[in-house]
């Protein structure tokens, strides 16, 4: 298993000396889908924004493919392969689907091939290429946002609340595509998701943040089979088994 992303002691937040995510260690491998879970305000978005270089580094290190990525530099993060799909999708709403994709493709000469590779994952966009992004349905907008991120050939795709504003049936269709992308391209995916059981169905591993601290992590299938552990992690109830290792690590370090 090749490690793509490694974080050691990551501190993330909005003001120096006041991290809302503390001492986060992460190791994500090629083709791995990690579900980053936790209650509202746990620090999931803050973690993704920090990995994408959109918040200043407050401490700790981030490495992609063994190379340290300078904190707080979005361009450096993107060059290293950390690509964010934000929860508001940030599409160019007055440009067409095709224009949105075209802007994201770096290898201009291979534009048609790149576009077709993206459309293979999201065939529903094929008929919508000339439609303005602002006129798409929520699900189509999310497909375009993810497609645009894929055009950058991410090493690690950071997806914040894929399900935001979408009907569960659409989420059920989109999440397996993320699994397929990871399997076929080797891209690692960090998925912030409120639909816990849906996320665990496609993820390899999961980590629960609460009050900015990792309170539970482990194999996604094992966690899916023990929903009471997830519930306890969300509620801040721990069974005192901290320090155990694979496949689950109930972290009892949260006060
Ligand atoms: N722009 C900001 N400035 C200061 N604090 C912020 C800002 N955005 C978020 N926070 C705080 O950071 C903490 C973590 O928030 P974050 O949005 O990362 O949580 P989350 O787990 O993504 O929650 P949700 O599931 O509700 O989106 C919260 O205490 C929140 O109030």
UniProtKB/TrEMBL annotation:
Q: Which family does it belong to?
A: Belongs to the ABC transporter superfamily.
What name appears for this protein in its UniProt entry? ATP-binding cassette domain-containing protein
Read off the InterPro entries from this record: AAA+_ATPase (IPR003593), ABC_transporter-like_ATP-bd (IPR003439), ABC_transporter-like_CS (IPR017871), BCAA_Transport_ATP-bd_LivF (IPR052156), P-loop_NTPase (IPR027417)
The chain positions of domain ABC transporter read: 5-236
Q: Which SMART domains match?
A: AAA
User: What GO molecular function terms would the record report?
Assistant: ATP binding
Q: Name one Pfam family in it.
A: ABC_tran
**UniProt keyword annotation of ATP-binding present:** yes
Q: Which residues cross the membrane?
A: none
Q: Which keywords does UniProt give here?
A: Amino-acid transport, ATP-binding, Nucleotide-binding, Transport
**PROSITE patterns, per database record:** ABC_TRANSPORTER_1 (PS00211), ABC_TRANSPORTER_2 (PS50893)
């Amino acid at each position: 298993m090749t490690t793509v992303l490694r974080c050691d002691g990551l501190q993330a937040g909005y003001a120096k000396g006041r991290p809302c995510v503390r001492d986060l260690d992460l190791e994500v491998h090629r083709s791995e889908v990690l579900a980053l879970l936790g209650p509202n305000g746990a620090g999931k978005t803050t973690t993704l924004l920090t990995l994408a270089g959109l918040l200043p580094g407050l401490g700790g290190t981030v490495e992609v493919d063994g190379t340290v990525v300078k904190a707080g530099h979005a361009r450096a993060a993107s060059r290293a392969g950390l690509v964010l799909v934000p929860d508001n999708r940030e599409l160019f709403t007055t440009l067409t689907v095709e224009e949105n994709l075209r802007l994201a493709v770096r290898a201009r000469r291979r534009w048609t091939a790149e576009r077709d590779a993206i459309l293979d994952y999201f065939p529903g966009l094929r008929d919508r290429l000339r439609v303005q992004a602002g006129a798409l349905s929520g699900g189509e907008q999310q497909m375009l946002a993810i497609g645009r991120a894929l055009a950058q050939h991410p090493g690690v795709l950071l997806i914040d609340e894929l399900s935001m504003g979408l009907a569960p049936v659409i989420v059920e269709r989109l999440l397996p595509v993320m699994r397929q992308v990871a399997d076929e391209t080797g891209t690692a995916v960090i998925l912030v998701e409120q639909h816990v059981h849906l996320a665990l169905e496609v993820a390899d591993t999961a980590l629960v943040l609460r009050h900015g601290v990792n309170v539970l992590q482990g194999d996604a299938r094992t966690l899916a089979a023990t929903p009471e552990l997830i519930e306890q992690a969300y509620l801040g109830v721990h069974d005192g088994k901290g320090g155990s290792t694979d496949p689950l690590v109930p972290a009892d370090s949260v006060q």
